[in-house]
Design goal:
Layout: H1 11-16, H2 33-51, H3 56-63, H4 67-84, E1 91-101, E2 104-114, E3 118-125, H5 134-147, E4 155-162, E5 167-173, H6 175-190, H7 212-228, H8 234-265, E6 268-269, E7 275-276, H9 288-298, H10 301-307, H11 312-317, H12 322-334
Parallel strand pairs: 3-4
Antiparallel strand pairs: 1-2, 2-3, 4-5, 6-7
Helix pairs in contact: 2-3, 2-4, 3-4, 5-6, 7-8
The protein binds iron/sulfur cluster (SF4).
């Protein structure tokens, strides 16, 4: 067996930062809340594909996550599967199929070996951030190619379903393209285990807490800071912005880790005559179910809406059935109860659109 085994999901980051693969066991599981929600959704959907029904409540309790969240994502997956199922019929179909080839191993959410020399793979994504899944799909396709045990195959297709976004990515490969991709993995990633490149790819990297390259990347933010006040330093501003995002996310994560330690183990002696303890303050809450009648007896509807906020996404989650959800949204729209308008939502870096010249860009005469 090869010394190091790699997971398809780790490869998109590895093509940006080869060092991120170093000394990370292939079987390592992430224990964060989003990862556990993803595991629960995958479990329920695999059951649905095998048996026609998935126990999302059991899956949610097994992984200790919010059942509403799992139910919503599960039903999104069910609806996608009903649409995509015809593409997987007519051959051997397996849900949660484990594969290993050389130094890559992974579990395809759905894989089908079809007549006509075609292989199809489906991957469920339950995360919040849409990322480029091309390298991950390439790895599944490369693994799947091996599974046909030398039979000729002409076309490999990967479907990536983004459950939160209602979005589908589709990739096609030929065996020649996959061989080229594998060559690039060996040459550009695996042959450079000590090459570290920090950037947006650090966001969910397990090595981040101890990574020196990431530390240097953040420290460089202070060098750029001096330039921020000078409006002429646009390049410096971009560098600070990218690092500030990472810094903010690292601080939030470290803050949570320290708070969890104090919560589970009690006060921490800081060694200088002080200790870190859980601060407390009184907080009064209201049980809306019990308060509802009293509130509606005492206030007008206009007064009540000033004091409350309603989450459209939570109402949507109450309607796992697509038809019911569409009915609800159109009834709310008809009543003028909802409106969509553009509002500031953080900053982002994007290419500047070049103005189009008239006459297809030809220079004007004279
Ligand atoms: S934290 Fe960033 S730089 Fe460090 S290994 Fe991970 S991706 Fe690479």
């Amino acid at each position: 067996m090869p010394k190091n085994i790699y997971r398809p999901s780790s490869l998109p980051r590895a093509f940006l930062c080869p060092g991120s693969l170093r000394n990370v066991p292939a079987e390592i599981e992430s224990s964060g809340e989003p990862a556990r929600v993803g595991n629960a959704v995958h479990m329920a959907l695999a059951q649905f594909i095998r048996c026609g029904v998935g126990d999302f409540s059991y899956a949610a309790s097994f992984y200790g996550v919010d059942a509403d969240e799992v139910r919503w994502l599960y039903f999104e997956g069910v609806q996608w599967w009903e649409r995509l199922k015809p593409f997987f019929e007519g051959g051997r179909v397996e849900a949660e199929h484990f594969m290993r080839r050389g130094n890559i191993q992974g579990t395809a959410d759905v894989i089908a070996w079809l007549d006509g020399d075609c292989l199809r793979v489906l991957d469920w994504k339950s995360g919040y951030v849409l990322t480029d899944a091309w390298h991950q799909c390439s790895a599944y396709a490369w693994l799947g190619e091996e599974e046909i045990h030398g039979l000729p195959i002409e076309r490999i297709e990967c479907f990536v379903v983004w459950l939160r976004h209602g979005h589908l990515d589709k990739e096609h490969y030929t065996p020649e393209q996959l061989a080229k991709w594998r060559g690039s993995l060996d040459k550009d990633v695996l042959a450079k285990p000590k090459t570290y490149r920090a950037g947006d790819q650090c966001e969910y990297c397990r090595k981040r807490p101890k990574c020196r390259a990431f530390g240097k990347y953040l420290m460089a933010a202070s060098d750029c800071m001096g330039n921020v006040m000078d409006a002429a330093h646009h390049v410096g501003l971009g560098a600070v912005y990218a690092r500030a995002k990472q810094l903010k996310s690292a601080i939030t994560k470290f803050d949570k880790i320290i708070a969890l330690r104090v919560k589970t183990e009690g006060s921490v002696d800081l060694g200088d005559g002080t200790q870190l303890v859980q601060g407390m303050r009184d907080k009064t809450t209201m049980d809306l179910r019990k308060a509802w009648t009293i509130l509606t007896d005492n206030f007008t509807a206009d007064e009540l809406v000033e004091c409350m906020s309603a989450s459209l996404s939570k109402f949507k989650k109450l309607c796992p059935d697509k038809a019911h959800r569409e009915f609800l949204m159109s009834a709310l729209e008809d009543a003028g109860a909802i409106e969509t308008k553009s509002a500031p939502h953080g900053l982002k870096i994007e290419p500047i659109e070049q103005p189009q010249l008239e006459n297809g860009g030809d220079k004007a005469d004279g």
